[in-house]
Structures are given as C-alpha cells and as structure tokens.
Design goal:
By secondary structure, this protein is mainly alpha-helical. It is 72% helix and 0% strand. Helix 5 packs across helix 10.
Length: 373
C-alpha cells in the first residue's frame, strides 16, 4: 500500500469538483452545468491561477490612521522655538554686519551689529532653555560632543558664538571707561580684544545661521525632512536679510552700503529657497502653501521684496532705509514662523506621511523616480 500523501493541489481540485457536483444536484443546478462553459472542471480551471489556487481580487485599501490618531507625533515645540530660530539667525546676521563695519571702517554698523548680536543670542538662549524646561539641561548637553547630532553641534556653536559676541559688544563700551588706572588699562585693551572676538563671532555665524535648518530636516516631520537641501539656504538668507535690516535702521545712507549688499544677497537666497519648498516637494509642499504657514510665507516674500526695493531705490533717504530695515526684519520673522508651522502641520496630517511612503515603494518596484516623473 502506498503511503504517499496527496498533494495540496490535488486535494484542492477534489474539493472544487465535489462542490460543483453538489451545486449541480440542487434545483436548477443541472441547467447551469449544461450551459456552454458550465462544465465544473472547466469552471474550476478558470478559477485556478498559475499556482493552482483560486484567483482572488482584493479591493484597493483605503487609508485610515490608527483610530484617527496621527501616525507621527507632532512636535511639542511651541512659538518659542520659532522665536529661537529667528533670534539665532538675527544674531548671526548682525555679527556678520559688525564684521563688515569693522573691516571697512564704519563704526556705526560695527556697533549696531555687535550690540544686536549680543542681545539676539541672549534671547535665543532664553527661548531654548525655556523650551528645555530646566536650565541645567543645556549644561548637560555640553558633557558630550556628537558630530552626527545637529542638536549637539548646535549647542557647541552657541557656546562658541555667545562669549565671542559678548566680548565684542562689551568692547564697544571701552570709551566710557576712565583713561587712567586699572580701568584705563582695561579701556585700552578692550578694542583689540573686541576686534578679535568680533572676527571669531563672524566666523561662527554661518554655522549658527544654518544649523537650525539641518536640525529641522533631521527630524521625521515630513515637510521638514524632505526639504533638507532648502532649509539651510532659507535660514542663511533670512539671517543675512535680518542683519541687513539692523544696518539699514542704524546707519545713514552713506554708511549703509554693506547692509544694502547683505540685503540683496540674503533676499536672493531666501526667495530661492522659499520658492523651492513651495514647488519642489510635491504633496509635501502643500503645508507651506495653505493655512497659516502659507500666509506667513507669502507675507515674508512680499516684505523681502519691499525691503530690498526700498534699500536700493531709496539709498539717499534715511526714512526709506529705516522702513526697508523694518520690512526685512519682519520678513525674517514671517519666514521662520512659516517654515516652523508648515512642518508642524505636515506632522499632524497622516496623509503627508503615508502617501510619500507609498510613492517611494512604488518607485522601488518600477524603477521610476517619482520626483523626476
């Protein structure tokens, strides 16, 4: 006696034939079996696929989140982090303005840039510590240096920039000290020390201006993560524009030449980067165009254009320069807050997480780049 067990395909065919025979014995079943193409074996063959099983068609799945909850946890950051982004950029741009005034012999620009840089970086530290909850957490982050962590790198950038900006700003008060005695000696030593500190702050400023863009892009928030090439560009342009705004407010038109050039360079970078994030990212550009983020970014674009136009066309008018400076500062605020709220909006809607993931999966299957398509 053979002990070989029937194969799964054979057992499945027997099941199909038995089922069709039972259906044929029911009332009306003979007529079905006698119709053209009604042979049970032939019908069973049509049901079977290449693997010997019955072909099943599952309807396309509809997307729903888990019990209506977001797939990603939205950032718990509040407005103070958006303000931290702005003040950090303002500090960086102002220190570059101060270095330009220092190297070109424009004391008004130098003084305004140094004082603003110190005030802005101090406010930036306050906003950051306020978000951390406890001041000692900032100190604890200095116990390690992790080059792969934008937060760790940013902490060390702030630590290097802050004291240099502080010394440069304090040096501006050297003229108020007595000329004799110990204070007189300090008054004579402060200017060269301040010049060196100002150069150190300016050298650190590009990293301070752009690391926050890298920090946002390093998160899982869809519209931030996908915009990783543009965010540092936008933040660099915003920093330059805000520093230029400080110079246009503080200096006379004859002394504001470096500020006007900074305004043009910053506006070009900021407008280019903002246009890219609003058009290049496909579905993930939508949060930057709609709702509060869209209104803020449009306002930032209009204020940037108005500020640069006023700085160039009204170069002989002190009032026009001051208005242009206010417009550029307002543009920087609007742009930073718009980018911040755009990313938060993308994290709250599961569609911005799931749809791009499906597109990437389909691209791997078909070998077609969805961005190029």
């Amino acid at each position: 006696m053979s002990t070989e067990r029937p194969r799964v395909g054979d057992r499945f065919r027997r099941f199909i034939n038995a089922r069709d025979e039972m259906a044929a014995r029911q009332p009306g079943g003979d007529s079905v079996a006698r119709q053209p193409g009604g042979d049970p074996a032939r019908r069973a063959g049509r049901r079977r696929g290449r693997g010997g099983g019955e072909e099943l068609r599952v309807p396309e799945a509809e997307f729903t989140s888990y019990y209506g909850r977001p797939i990603l946890k939205a950032p718990v950051w509040k407005w103070d982090i958006a303000a931290y982004l702005f003040t950090g950029g303002l500090a960086a741009g102002s220190s570059l303005l101060a270095a330009g005034g220092q190297l070109t012999g424009r004391p008004v620009l130098r003084r305004a840039g140094r004082v603003t840089a110190l005030g802005a970086v101090s406010a930036s530290a306050v906003f950051l510590i306020r978000d951390l909850g406890r001041p000692e957490r900032f100190h604890h982050m200095l116990r390690v240096a992790k080059p792969t962590s934008p937060m760790s790198v940013g902490t060390w950038i702030l630590t290097a920039f802050g004291p240099a900006a502080g010394v440069a700003a304090i040096a501006e008060g050297a003229g108020l000290l007595p000329r004799r005695g110990l204070l007189g000696l300090a008054g004579r030593a402060l200017p060269p020390v301040g010049h060196a500190a100002g150069i150190v702050a300016a050298a650190t400023a590009p990293a301070l201006a752009t690391y926050t863009g890298v920090l946002l892009a390093d998160t899982a928030v869809p519209s931030w993560h996908e915009a990783y090439p543009e965010l540092p560009v936008i933040f660099a342009g915003s920093a330059l524009a805000s520093g230029a705004g400080v110079g246009l407010l503080a200096a006379s038109p004859a002394q504001a030449g470096p500020a006007r050039r900074m305004a043009v360079a910053g506006a070009a970078l900021e407008l280019y980067g903002a246009h890219r994030v609003e058009t290049r990212l496909g579905l993930l550009s939508e949060p930057y165009r709609s709702g509060r983020p869209g209104r803020l970014l449009r306002a930032g674009r209009l204020l940037t254009v108005a500020g640069v136009a006023g700085a160039l066309l009204g170069r002989r008018s002190r009032a026009a320069g001051a208005l242009s400076g206010v417009a550029l500062l307002g543009a920087s605020v609007a742009t930073r807050f718009g980018i911040f709220y755009g990313g938060v909006a993308s994290a709250r809607d599961p569609r911005y997480t799931v749809v791009p993931q499906r597109e990437r999966v389909n691209a791997r299957r078909t070998g077609v780049d969805p961005a190029a398509d």
